[in-house]
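Lecture 7 notes: from sequence to structure.

We start with a single chain of 241 residues. Read the sequence below before looking at the structure.
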Amino acid sequence: MPADAPTILATSGGIKPGRRTRLAFSAMTDYAVDLSGTTGRPPRVCLLATAMGDDRATLLYLTEAAQERGFAVSHLALFPMPNVDDVTELLLAQDVVWVFGGSVAGLLAMWRLHGVDAALHAAWQAGVVLTGVSAGSICWHVGGTTDSFGPDLRPVTDGLGFVPFSNGVHYDSEEQRRPLFQSLVGDGTLPAGYATDDGAGVVYRGTEFVEAVAENGEAAAYFVTTTGNGVVETRLDVRRL
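Now the structure, written as tokens:
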């Protein structure tokens, strides 16, 4: 059963160190499954680690985490070639598509090269919930801040644009993120957008913001825009999962 509207949960969370596995999915990812409306069977979750170059160890750790959580797990890999004949068919068969962090610039380039961008759009329109962390959050937006090019953050402005906002991730944990995001919105490099502390996420239904959520007691989310008086950052009400 797909979500009843195109749904994105864009996060700076959803994954954590595991107790018996290297990684473990957390409450934010469980919420993505809830948003899909899946009941009565294991949720079908497809993992994408394109931003990590489809690193085999990363995919193994994510798959172990998904199995431990009781997900019916699959993955899409593009290196050294796509691992399936029909990417759209794979993604349309899912309840949730979960995208890991890494190089958002590299992720976008590879997705466009192999038509994954169009396949993801089709899945989103069909009610498959799109979610992920860091690069797996920025990608759904017009753009954001990235370390894809080096340790000094730079803007990325060619996101998929499924929602018409920019996105700031790791807003509280990486010192360059907040000032650069505000500066880029302020000078028009990026449109107004939503930013998340580690452990927080924002939900969109269609292209509209619905709510901010968090999987811990401290994480916050923000809306950053410009007015006649400059850049304005508004802390949002956050629902704790």
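The domain at 7-240 is CATH 3.40.50.880 (Rossmann fold). Keep this in mind for problem set 3.
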